[in-house]
DNA sequence: TTGAAAGCGATACCAC
DNA sequence: GTGGTATCGCTTTCAA
């Protein structure tokens, strides 16, 4: 691998001039710029970014720490991040925390050690403080969830999304909607539970919720608990992975969404319209969330902003059949 | 941020000794090891990996280049990679090539520049040669698809998976199965098309295929083309994203899988059993593929192997309802 | 505008 | 077994 001194020798100039030329320093004369470009091409020179990072004390890599790569919402966010990152000349280290505080801090440590230029993090707990990242002075943007500390954030309006969904259930004729809420230590889960509570209370109905982890198992467990208890006739589910578990549990009990039980879940997915019956969802602008978060981070990395900023993006209710109350027939093809 | 000289001063030893102690060099005496450990803890010392990488000329980061983070198969592979990588003390840079040669080579360039210790790549074209990575002598394992060059690989047996699926369709009473094949420049798509051809030819039936990109649009287009042509009565679909498009297209034509048209697709997903009717799939051991590929890569990074290795993992047909031929009734709830 | 030289922080070689 | 120190490849003063 050719290094900068090789290019310098080949072009008959000093290494510092090569560095300046290749980094677009306007003080370099056109003639040198060209000669250096040619020499570099001839040698197949590729700057060693590690050396560069060591010297500049920062890389052009950002870290994205998300709870679950298997989650469509997260991958959609990731795509948004990726696109803007690439546009901005940054690469991405993707880290999967699995909603695990341990893994989350491990990844933050790694990000610091790798000298990332900035980090996007979807923290498991709001009272996390960006730990190692913060100490190292690395710019952070909290994404989808907030941090108590003074840190930029961008989230969706989960609470009003949940409220709207619950009101829709009520309007559709369901009388006892319950909530399969996410883990109580995760903000989005709490916000959604809050929105649900507001809506049912406003209708004079006692809230009925069960918490579960943000995965299929959590959804199945929460649904089972609710269904075994004071029989609800509709369910608001806190995320898409839980919804998968809820659907499995309903199937196990031969309960059909839309006829036997009303169903709305957070997060639209490609398969939501294809299942039987098509599922009503609260859509979140995931791609946009990722893209905007990355822009915020880039601005912060460049030092273009000083005040802490918080953005909130709206959700959208997509009505399909799982929430509209219809009396039988039962499927004949069971 | 404390650096190694600070720790050395604090512990009253030389920097080189600190380095040795912290890296578990057995020549360091217990007493020094302890004193240094304490000093490091006191200062909150965290080794700078960038400096370390520069000196060692390699990082403890590996790159994973996959075509589509939105694809469940890919994210399952990613999880396998991630788990083994973490066990081995490596971090992961995840790159999404979007089946785009340009992005693919850009990411390979970035990986080289970042001095990754190794790369896992699911190449768009088999005649790619690992480009920049190969030149830089960085270990590569091709995953899910092979490379013409002498490079380790691990794939699943797409061809026999497709053959088996087609035979199953035939045995189920469908008489004109067609194939929604993936892009012809992607190996897995060709292998699956080959398996399909073998099976129909063995049954004395003329193959009927349409190619499309590995996404929803590609699936819809291929299905439309086949359905508009010499009406097939069953479809073998080459991947899960295409299946989503095929399902949409069938729905558009009010064709119901299992009654009007037999359907099998590659890749099992959490939603496959939930759609209407539950979908028969060719399951690939995605997690295992990622995990094994990473182990292969780690062995190669450590220089534990010399000969080029190729692994093939079996697929498994999971029969659900979309492939079993049943005459009506049509859904009453349409 | 260009060149010389001093680091960035860790590792590894060579003395002791 | 431990300490001094050159080195990895690049950027960035400082002088010319």
Task: Describe the 3D structure.
Two copies of one chain form a homodimer. In chain A, 43% of the residues lie in helices and 16% in strands. Chain A is built from twelve helices and twelve strands. In chain A, α1 packs across α2 (15-22), α2 (15-22) crosses α3 and α5 runs parallel beside α12 (286-301). Chain A has a domain at 158-285 and 317-323: 3-Layer(aba) Sandwich (Rossmann fold). By secondary structure, the first copy, chain A, is an alpha/beta fold. Chains A and B meet through α4, α5, β2, α6 and α11 of A and α4, α5, β2, α6 and α11 of B. Chain B binds a DNA duplex (16 and 16 nucleotides) through residues 3-5, 13-20, 23, 27-29, 32, 47-57.
Structural key phrases:
six-stranded mixed sheet; 334 residues; Rossmann fold; disordered C terminus; homodimer; alpha/beta; DNA-binding
Largest β-sheet summary of chain A: 6 strands, parallel
Strand order of the largest sheet of chain A: 2-1-3-4-5-11
The CATH top-level class label of the domain at 158-285 and 317-323 in chain A? Alpha Beta
Task: Give the name of the CATH superfamily of the domain at 158-285 and 317-323 in chain A.
Answer: Response regulator
Oligomer designation = homodimer
Overall pLDDT level of chain A: 93
Largest protein-protein interface? A-B, 52 and 52 residues
Strand residues, percent of chain A: 15-25%
- CA radius of gyration of chain A is 25 Å
Overall structural class of chain A, as computed from helix and strand content, comes to: alpha/beta
